[in-house]
Amino acid sequence: MGKVIITAALTGAIHTPSMSEYLPFRIEDMVEEAVRSYNAGAAVVHVHARNPENGIPSSSVEIFREILSRIKAECNAVITPTTGGSYTMTPKERLAVVSALKPEMATFNAGSLNFALYPVLEKYREFKYDWEEGYLKGTESFIFSNHFESLHIYSKTMNETGTRPEIEIYDVGQINNVAQLLREGYLKKPVYLQYVMGILGGIPATADNLLYLIRESKRLLKEDFIWSVCAAGRFQFPMGVINILEGGFWRVGLEDNLYIEKGVLAKSSAEQVEKAIRIIRELGYEPATPDEAREILGLKGIGKVNY
Ligand code: KMH
Ligand code: ZN
């Protein structure tokens, strides 16, 4: 049985501070969470920047630099900053972290979609910060734009900085986008896909759909891909188990799911990492170390980043 790359997605741009007291958005909390997830067995940590004063998603390179350099000083995890940012950011703002910090890996969102969070307003009514409600409501008219011109720019930039794209796949057609980018020479084989399931606007998180994504990836990309899955909310663990059994990897973390079990808030992404590793070990798998992940993903090495 192979090694499984476990990724911990610490904060994201979906959940807002009032949804969980455990969602880290201050720099010191994000660093502590990254180290906790690393110590729990995660090989990769995925990082978004937030304004430390009020938790609103930020594209500030200086905040990213502070977070990434402090994580790097404390552990050997692979650090994957987002280029997804949030819907308040331009493509240029979203990409700035890659040009400036030249990370080993960064997310690469492979297509456009509705990215709707507004239905959570039925559940959350009281907010600590004045931006939260408008931010969530604003997603009712939000198209997460990743057209081919921006995909070309993202690819070129990541090729220049030696940054491995972690290609976020929200729906089956985006696998064909990747095939097109390979044909055009923008992306290199093998590509690393992160199936993102259960976002309202993207592919629903069902076993059938996950197997379909894998099958369609094999049809279009042959053997030239490695893949992981992250699924929103209650689907995080079921989709992860299926994906492991199919030969893929697994992303957990409070970015995607605030709970450790039904009705119980996770106190840390590390709790979800520990639970995922207990499960994969029961199935005969072992978590990959960060250096094994670097080998599997063909990363340039932490010594070649600019932070
Ligand atoms: N936010 C997740 C739904 C990114 O950060 O660029 C997918 C993601 C993409 O993590
Ligand atoms: Zn993210």
Give the strand line-up of the largest sheet: 6-3-2-13-12-11-10-7
* Tally of structural domains: 1
The major β-sheet equals: 8 strands, parallel
Tally of DSSP helical segments:
10
Radius of gyration over all CA atoms, rounded: 18 Å
Beta-strand residue percentage: 15-25%
Shape: globular
Mean pLDDT figure = 97
Series of H and E elements: EEHEEEHEHEEHEHEHEHEHEEEHEH
CATH superfamily: Aldolase class I
Secondary structure layout plus pairing:
Layout: E1 3-4, E2 6-9, H1 27-40, E3 44-47, E4 49-50, E5 57-58, H2 61-74, E6 78-81, H3 91-101, E7 105-109, E8 113-114, H4 132-138, E9 143-144, H5 148-161, E10 164-169, H6 173-183, E11 191-197, H7 207-221, E12 225-231, H8 236-245, E13 249-252, E14 259-261, E15 264-265, H9 269-282, E16 286-287, H10 290-297
Parallel strand pairs: 1-16, 2-3, 2-13, 3-6, 7-10, 10-11, 11-12, 12-13
Antiparallel strand pairs: 4-5, 8-9, 14-15
Helix pairs in contact: 1-2, 1-9, 3-5
Index terms:
307 residues; alpha/beta; TIM Barrel; eight-stranded parallel sheet; two-stranded parallel sheet; 19% strand; binds (5S)-5-amino-3-OXO-hexanoic acid; binds zinc ion
